[in-house]
Amino acid sequence: MAIYCLDNQGYQYLAHTGMEPSGRFRASELVQREFAFLRHHLQAIDLLVLAERLAQRYREVSLARMRTERQLRQDPILLGSGTSRVRVVPDGWVDLRLGGLQHCVAFELDRGTERKNKIQSKVKHLLECSGAPYQLAFGTTSLTVAWVVAQGGDGRVEELVRWSEEVLRSAGTTHDADLFRFAAFDPAEIEPGRAFFGAFWRRPFDLSPVPLIGEDNGGA
């Protein structure tokens, strides 16, 4: 796989046309990033592309807003204060409208590399920010955290579900289990209808698979 990124000359050209990416740019930093990081980044983008393809394919669906991981990192949700402040940054976020209802999805892309303590810390922070901090940052109460396992299959899904259940029990917030969805698929290969409407997503404390949004449309 070839992965291309901007060099200084390319950035200057985009800046001249007013199309340069927002935020800080350092060509040397892009070159130094490891392949695993770039692979993760590209698959996170594939999830946003899925949402865009869904809106293109289904007339009843519209994509109202979208934020990439890069944009979210520039304006993260902040928890705590001072030196203990935590930045909560999903791997992508979309605001979908279906049948007059708003469905906001924050994506977490998992490639099977993060250990239990790191995953549980993420779950804890996502729970903490899902109320007022999230509403202030995004201007809505609608939120589903979609954890997509791109490497590791159903076994990794079961692992993530179990770890999230432990956090929810420990925090006394089992009533918030519906905030989370877990599924295993390749974001670049799956059909958008199946990804969002297919009833194969897992929730904590629930053995019955459910769709990410709306009803199961059979994975068209």
List strands and helices in order, with pairings:
Blueprint: H1 8-16, H2 27-32, H3 35-57, E1 61-68, H4 69-74, E2 77-79, E3 86-88, E4 92-98, E5 101-110, H5 116-129, H6 132-138, E6 144-149, H7 153-171, E7 180-184, H8 192-197, E8 201-203, E9 206-210
Parallel strand pairs: 5-6, 6-7
Antiparallel strand pairs: 1-4, 2-3, 4-5, 8-9
Helix pairs in contact: 5-7
Structure, explained:
By secondary structure, the chain is of the alpha/beta class. The protein folds into two domains: 1-33, no CATH class; 35-210, 3-Layer(aba) Sandwich (Trna Endonuclease, Chain: A, domain 1). The chain has helices at residues 8-16, 27-32, 35-57, 69-74, 116-129, 132-138, 153-171, 192-197; strands spanning 61-68, 77-79, 86-88, 92-98, 101-110, 144-149, 180-184, 201-203, 206-210. The chain has a five-stranded mixed sheet with strand order 1-4-5-6-7. The chain has a two-stranded antiparallel sheet with strand order 2-3. A two-stranded antiparallel ribbon has the order 8-9.
